[in-house]
Design goal:
The protein is α/β, with parallel strands linked by helices and 496 residues long. It contains 18 helices and 8 strands. It is elongated and about 125 Å long. It binds guanosine-5'-triphosphate and magnesium ion. Magnesium ion (MG) binds next to helix 3. Pfam families: G-alpha (PF00503).
Amino acid sequence: MSPSYDVDPLDLAMAPPADETQEQRAARLLKEQAAVQRSKQIDAELKASKVVMKRYSKAVKVLVLGQSLSGKSTTIKNFQMTYARKAWIEERSSWKAVILLNLVRSVNIVADILAEELDDDAEVIQEISSRSTTPSVSPKLTEKHRSTILRLGPLRQIEKDLKLHLGAGSTEVNDSPIQRSPNGSVTDVQVDISRSFGQEFSVRSSSGWKSVLDKVRHPLPGKESNPPSVAFQVVTSCREEIKWLWNDETTQNLLRNRRIYLEDTPGFFLNDVDRIANLEYDPSDQDIVRARLRTTGVQEYHFTLDRGIVSVNFKTPISKHERTVNVTDPLDWIMYDVAGIRTCRAAWIPYFREITALLFLAPISAFNERLDEDRKVNRLEDTLMMWKTICRSKLLFNVQIILFMNKTDLLRKKLNDGISVKKYIPEYKNPNDYEHVAQWFRKIFFKMYDDAGRVKAGLPFIGHFTSVIDTAATAKTLESVHVAILRNDIQEAGLV
Ligand SMILES: Nc1nc2c(ncn2[C@@H]2O[C@H](COP(=O)(O)OP(=O)(O)OP(=O)(O)O)[C@@H](O)[C@H]2O)c(=O)[nH]1
Ligand SMILES: [Mg+2]
């Protein structure tokens, strides 16, 4: 029989079987309905993804704020390490110069303290001999200390050269080794949670780690010596002296007596001398997040993400239940890293209008510390006042704010060392352990956020406890931040 051209072969193929029963028909119709529904859903997802992609022809912009030393640059380093691994690896070895400077600075601090002590001893001996009694050898420091300090003398020039080479960010506002003490005696300014936000601003020129690392990677032509490589040679040749001085019991006792806790200061590498002063040395991820380079001005970091698709959970009108949508991640992220010291905060404001999200770093371990730039101000109080202002800012009302309650490792350490929170925050009445203290801080931050009307306005509070030198844990936190930023932005734009 010849084929009939009046019948579409596709219709024939799709037609139900001629002997279909009532039950089979009902089941088939149900199946077809579900398929149509699913197909509509896929179309909607595709449409949303397309609009999202179009919208994200612009980059996602994240402003990272917080006081100096709060961990802003360290958070951005973690972001780059996790999402833009290629660029991170390319830059890695350039961090060596910063790490060397951090190390040399610590050695010089120790040497200065010992030299001062030796001078004091010499004065005592001189006084004793002028009284014509038999001069005695210093009870604490020996000839070995003196000769070791002498041999470490060239490191002073190395510190100067590296600072000159690396620029303004290589020095702290107040370059004092006395950062904190376990009993809080040098840091006893109390927190007044009710005080208002001081407004003292000025703008500085910008220089972030990228520009500093560029300088290291591409030194100016015509320069005979390259400070980082000279520094590396000198540090390597002094390795045994540095180790001896740092591990010496008398040195340790002296530092403890003076309540100098170098181990807790940013950029501490004295326990890693063997590894660093070694020809094979290549900075590890951990070393880089621990390295300290102060940000001056505002620095933009452009990251081209290594991957493109992110799964985001939404509650959407299409499906009543929460479901996952794969959206094409914007490949370009811009993160703004700012100088946290008070005099530089005016420079933040122009960025408030441009951003997708704001990441606020609150170092909650700093409850017993003072600002370097203003020794009268408690660091936690400064952070809280800044947080309050940011939550209330009208300019930021459409911006998602994410809080990192950072330096939890140092908070734990201080509480374990017996430092009392109540001494600095009289309102605090709970037990002096990590869980209670951390939750109490969270409540304070939440209250300020809520009082600003943000929760009522449908902007949920997002707060994470972090220690951003822990790269594995921070990668997980950043993953959820990353998704939260995308979700909020897509929802706000009404795209799903
Ligand atoms: N122990 C510990 N150290 C941290 C943590 N976060 C940051 N740091 C260290 O603190 C120092 C300062 O961190 P940065 O990220 O440079 O601080 P910042 O907020 O960028 O400071 P400015 O550039 O001065 O505004 C660095 O040496 C970091 O390694 C943390 O959670 N725990
Ligand atoms: Mg910084």
